[in-house]
Structure formats: structure tokens, C-alpha cells
Amino acid sequence: MASNIQSYQDYLVKEKNYSPLTVQAYVSDIQTFQAYLNDFHNNTVLEEISYSQVRSWIVVLIENNISANSVNRKVSSLKSFFKFLLKTKQISVNPLLKHKSLKTAKKVQIPFSEKELQDVFEFNSYSNDFEGIRNQLIIELFYTTGIRRAEMINLTLNNVNTVQKTIKVIGKRNKERIIPLLNCTIELIEAYKHERNHLEHVNQKEMLILSKNGNKVSESFVYRLINKYFSTVSQKTKKSPHVLRHSFATHLLNNGADLNSVKELLGHASLSSTQIYTHSSLAELKKVYQEAHPRNK
Predict the structure, then answer these.
(1) How are strands ordered across the β-sheet holding 160-161?
(2) What pTM did the predictor assign?
């Protein structure tokens, strides 16, 4: 059993190109289920389980106040593992073949308003040194390119082409996409690179965004930075890099961008992923409708 989990882990890394954090989450979910089998089902091995055992595990998770979203994620990890076992002929039937996910309430992401973005750039005091310019650049890149937090952290100097005014982003499953840069973003990149050149120690020279110690910044650092700056201009409960990505998409759609273009910029595999951003454009749509329809004169 343990060897199958290791083989599956290797498969996720080498063939599926999943990030270390994603792989860790998948494997952890599988190990959690195995621990449940050890405690309640006489150490039944994963390759021999029945769907009823998965159902009883789901009941235990719900009784322990695990959210429906989290339960669905854990079961999805199992589903993926059993597909792998089926593919490698370790099992002949997938016990989760007919499983239906728990119903969950759809969360409507609330983006920052255009005014809040304007305020965060105009009314925050960014010091005119390496850290101040870097912090401003991080916010600028999130809002003007819509990139994900992990994509931001892993940008290299070679990914930025100020002549062609583009950045190359390595997205999920190592999929590359090219995103255009605004002139204001390029100016900030150049100012940041000037300050970066004066750092005493640079340990990861190829990386674009660095800490003052010359290392690649962490995901938690970027999250805290966004939360700190937006707390001064917004009362919204959630203030994160993902909300900035959401704001990027919503503001483009509100100002006339078509859905397919936004899909390409965000690096989504299908339009269905991008369509969630159209919901938050409804307020803008209502406003245009009210102002434009002849019957409302």
C-alpha cells in the first residue's frame, strides 16, 4: 500500500507536473483515509476498500464539522488515487466511480472596487527604497496582470521583457502564457531593478521578486503584504492575492473586455472557470441597463 502511495506521488510530480503543495495535499488526504481504515475497519488496505467504507468516512468527517468543500476535496484526492490504481492495474474497479459530491453553497467572490485600487496606489505611503518599491510592484503586478500568487513568486528576471512589454508566466502544470505589461508597470519594474542591484547579498539571482536578504519571497509573506496594504483602504473581510486576481478579471469585464480574452490572460483551461467572474459584473450590467434602456427615461 505504502509503495502505491509513493508511486502515485511520483506520478503527480513527474507526469502531472503538480506543485509540491498540491502533491502534499493529495497524499495527506489519502493517508488520512488510511488512518481512518486502520482505526475503524481493521486495517483494511486501500486497494481492497468498498464504497460503503468511504461513505462512513464521509459521515465521520461531517460529524467532526468538516465543511462540505473540504470533504469534497478529500474525496476528490481519493478518486484521483483510485483512477491511478486502475490505470496501473492495481485494482479492477474504482470504488468511487459513481460517487456524487456533496452540495455546497456557491461563494460569490467580492472584488476590490476600482476606487479601492486607486486608493491603495495613491494614499499608501510607499518608501522610496528597495522594500517600498518592491511592495508597490507586487500589488501592481497582481492587479495589472491577474497572475496567481505562486506565479508571482516564481517569476524570474528572464520572464520579463520590457522591450516587448510582456511577461512570461509559468502556470499550473507548467503551462506557459504571455501577458502584456502596461507602461506604468514597466516603469515600476525598472525602478525596482535599479534598487535590487544595490542589495548587498542576492542568493537567488535569477528570481525577480526578492526579500531584503536576497531570497525568493514566501507565499505567506505575499499574503501578509496584500492584507496589510488593503486593510488601509478596504473593509472587505477577505483581502488576499486571489481577491486581486478576481478584481483584475472583474474590472476588465466591466470595462468591455470579452470573456475569451480574460480567459487567456488568467490562464484558465476552459471558459467555465472564467465565467465565475461574470457574476460580480452583474451590478455594472444593471447600472448600464438602467441608464440605457428607453423605458427607464
Answers:
(1) 160-161, 166-170, 176-180
(2) 0.67
